[in-house]
């Protein structure tokens, strides 16, 4: 595929997830953390990066109006359109990609539920794109990681044993070569759009956009992320986020 020769850099913020594990009764990206909804933290970080000229938030259909109000209230001037999400995160990112004009050369993907990303980390992913098709952020693992055997489904009607209900260890993995992957993730726009379209044709879903680039032969570079770049998944994560924020202000 011929590489786009323009220099336009855009960002997509997927914020349309169901938040099944975030049991507060409200949409997770709109949860207010220290006076601002989670998604606003992410949008402001992207707004601060001079190289980015456009930001496209992707939200639930029912959140389009409130998202527009937040963009106006917090003066996120690089947002010129807000896109409704899809059934899965991958569908939402695809909707965002389709909303970008074809002059876009590079696209940054950052989750709306990661409020503490910094502008410098975002910029580093852009700078490191030279010579590869994508740049992702990650941190070394702190815990020992073990691969376990898949458990067989329980047989209906069979009495379950009191003991031995856990999974058996298959092997211990070398954590020195493993990374916990975060966003931001930055890609060549044309390649990412093509990867999404090929995945849709195959009915393939991946856990992040980099996995799609990998599947279709692209090269991905991992750079150092930050343990502070927390993703809010459960309500317990809010407690960690509050501690991190208060510590940074001390």
Name a few traits of the molecule:
alpha/beta, seven-stranded mixed beta sheet, single chain, 250 residues, globular, 7 helices, Spore Coat Polysaccharide Biosynthesis Protein SpsA, Chain A, two-stranded antiparallel ribbon
Give a nutshell description of this structure.
This protein has helices spanning 38-47, 64-73, 89-99, 119-127, 189-202, 209-215, 235-249, and strands spanning 8-15, 32-33, 36-37, 52-59, 83-84, 104-109, 134-140, 146-148, 169-172, 179-188, 220-224. It is an alpha/beta fold and 250 residues long.
Q: How would you characterize the overall build of this protein?
A:
The protein is α/β, with parallel strands linked by helices. It has a single domain, classed as Spore Coat Polysaccharide Biosynthesis Protein SpsA, Chain A (Alpha-Beta Complex). Helix content is 30%, strand content 23%. The chain contains seven helices and eleven strands. The protein has a seven-stranded mixed beta sheet, sandwiched between helices. Strands 2-3 form a two-stranded antiparallel sheet. Helix 2 (64-73) links the parallel strand 4 and strand 5 (83-84). Helix 3 packs across helix 5 (189-202) and helix 5 (189-202) packs across helix 6. The longest helix has 15 residues, at 235-249. The radius of gyration is 20 Å and the shape is globular. The model has no long low-confidence stretch (mean pLDDT 91).
């Amino acid at each position: 595929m011929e590489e786009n020769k323009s220099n336009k850099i855009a960002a997509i913020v997927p914020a349309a997830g169901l938040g099944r594990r975030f049991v507060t009764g409200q949409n997770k990206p709109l949860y207010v953390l220290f006076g601002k909804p989670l998604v606003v933290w992410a949008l402001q970080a992207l707004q601060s990066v001079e190289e980015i000229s456009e930001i496209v938030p992707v939200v639930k259909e029912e959140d389009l109006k409130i998202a527009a109000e937040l963009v106006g209230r917090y003066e996120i001037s690089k947002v010129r359109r807000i896109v409704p999400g899809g059934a899965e995160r991958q569908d939402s990112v695809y909707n965002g990609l389709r909303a970008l004009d074809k002059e876009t050369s590079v696209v940054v993907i950052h989750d709306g539920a990661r409020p503490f990303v910094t502008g410098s980390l975002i910029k580093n992913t852009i700078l490191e794109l030279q010579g590869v098709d994508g740049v992702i952020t990650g941190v070394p693992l702190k815990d020992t990681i073990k691969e376990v055997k898949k458990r067989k489904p329980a047989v209906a009607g069979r009495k379950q044993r009191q003991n031995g209900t856990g999974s058996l260890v298959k092997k211990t993995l070398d954590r020195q070569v493993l990374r916990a992957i975060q966003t931001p993730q930055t890609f060549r726009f044309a390649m990412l759009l093509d990867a999404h379209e090929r995945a849709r044709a195959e009915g393939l879903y991946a856990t992040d956009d980099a996995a799609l680039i990998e599947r279709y032969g692209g090269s991905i570079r991992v750079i150092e992320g930050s343990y502070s770049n927390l993703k809010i998944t459960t309500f317990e994560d809010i407690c960690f986020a509050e501690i991190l924020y208060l510590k940074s202000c001390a």
